[in-house]
Amino acid sequence: MSIFNAMNISASGLTAERTRVNAAASNLANAHTTRTAQGGPYQRIDPILQSLDDDDGAGVQVAGLAQDQSGGRPMYMPDHPDANADGIVMMPDVDPVHEVVNLMSAQRGFEANATAFDTAKTLIDRALELIR
């Protein structure tokens, strides 16, 4: 494997972790959204990651975003504008603790990929110094 492949792998990891951060942030921001343009409560999203291993190198890519299909969780809130006749409102099925853990995990993954990228860059710099 060339040093440039290592940099490409790290770069793909950085992109994947950024997508994980964006998804968790979106989930947290919409944790109380009871009405969307599509109707019904916000549906949490999770990125689907898949490995790459082809002629161009290896790495990871975001294959898509999966939406939660649970339909939400019912809460008794009779004064809410979206409450039904029984006072039940369908809330998004977003667990803030789960989303914060996802954010922390993505942050650690991002830091690891950034460190690997910087290490590869340093190796290239040192190799060029040896050539001079």
Spell out the key features of this protein.
single chain; 132 residues; alpha+beta; two-stranded antiparallel sheet; 2 helices; elongated
Q: Can you describe what's shown?
A:
With 132 residues, the chain is an alpha+beta fold. The chain has one domain. Helix content is 48%, strand content 22%. The chain is built from 2 helices and 4 strands. A hairpin with a 2-residue loop joins β1 and β2. The longest helix is centred in the last third of the chain and has 36 residues. The model has no long low-confidence stretch (mean pLDDT 92).
Question: Assembly state here?
Answer: single chain
- Beta-strand content estimate: 15-25%
What would you call the shape? elongated
The largest sheet, given as strand count, sense and whether it forms a barrel, is:
2 strands, antiparallel
Q: How are the strands of the biggest sheet laid out side by side?
A: 1-2
User: Cα distance, first to last residue?
Assistant: 24 Å
